[in-house]
Amino acid sequence: MTSETVERQVENTAVEEIPIEGFDFIEFYVGNALQASYYYNRGFGFDVVAYSGLETGERNRVSYVLRQNKVQLILTSGLNPNSEIGHHVLQHGDGVKNVGLRVKDARKAYETALSRGAEGVAAPVEQEDKDGRFVTATIKTYGDTVHTFVQRREYTGAFAPGFKAVEKKGETTGLLIIDHVVGNVECERMIDWVQFYERVFGFYVYQGFDAKDISTEYSALVSKVMANKGGSIKLPINEPYPGKRKSQIQEYLDYYTAPGVQHIAISTADIIKTVAHLRDRGIDFLTVPRSYYDMLSERVGKIDEDIEELASLGILVDRESEGYLLQIFTKPVEDRPTLFFEVIQRKGAKGFGKGNFKALFESIEREQAVRGNL
Ligand code: FE2
After folding, report:
1. What is the Å distance from ligand 1's center to 327 Cα?
2. Ligand 1 center to residue 68 CA distance, Å?
3. How do 146-151 and 95-102 pair as beta strands?
4. What is the CATH number of the domain that holds 103?
C-alpha cells in the first residue's frame, strides 16, 4: 500500500452487490443484560422498546432491545451455564456478537452469500405472528462475529416475533443513525476480510489508510473502509502494524482474544448538544491536549462551531474537500479495553477524520499506558 489515500471507483467492483438497506441492529452479548440496559437507557438515552426472556417463553436467553431514532441495540445474556452466550462472554467479555443488516429478501441474500463462499450460521427462518412476517438468516464474519440478514418490511411488531413491547423511555441525546461499524482483525489478515466483503457482498474499498496515515511515535495500524454503493453501510477493517510499542489494535486483540468489533460510530445533527448530554450522564470520553485546539483554525479553516466550546467538550474536527466533520470517542464501555463508541457529525465530509488520527491515537496511547499495555 502506498502512503496515498486509496479511493477506488464504484464501477470497478466485479461482483453484483447484495442489496443492503442499512444497519438493522447491533447485538451485544453481555454478562448482565438488565444492568447493561440501564447504562444505554440512562447514559446514552436509548428507549427500551422490547424484551424477550423467561416471561415471554424464552428459556435460554434474555434480550433487551433499545432504540434511539434509527439506531437499534440488542443486549443479550445467557440464562444457563452452558449457553453459547455464556461462553462468548467468558472468552471475549461483553462485546458485539451480531451486526444485523436490513434487506428486502433475507433468503436470497443468504443464498447469494453462501454461493460466494460465506459460511452459514443459521439458515433462513421465517416467523409469523399477529404482527406479520419476519425473516432472518445469519452468516459468519471475522472472529466470532456474525451478520444476520433481517427482512422486516412485512412486520409491524415492537421488534421481532418472540419479543414483547416495553415502554421505558430514555431522555434522548440526539443519536440518529449508525454511521459505520469498525472491525479489528489480526496482523496481515485485513486483506482477507477486505476480499471477503468484496467477494461475498460486492462491497468496494471506499477508502484506505496505511501505517503512515495512522501512526504515532509508538504504534501504527492500517485500515480499509468497505462500503456498499448506496453508502448506507460502511465497515472499516483495521489490522495492527508493527511499531516501537504495542498497537492499540493488538491491545484489543489481546483482550478480546479474537477479531471483533472495535467501535460503533453513531451520527448526530448537533454534536455539541449530544456530547454535553452524554457527559452530564456520566459517559467518559477520550481527552485531547489543549494544544490541539490552538492549531485548529489554521488546520480546518472557518467552521460554524465555537472552538472554545469544542475544546471544553473534547470534540475533534477534520476538514476534507467537500466539507468538515466533528467527532469524539468514548473510553471503552466495558471492563476490558475493547469496544468503544464514536459520536460523529458530518457537515459535508464523507471520510473518517484522517486529520485527527494522530491526536486520537496519542490519546488512546495515553490510556493504554495507564493500563500498563503500551
Ligand atoms: Fe470511526
Report:
1. 8
2. 19
3. parallel
4. 3.10.180.10
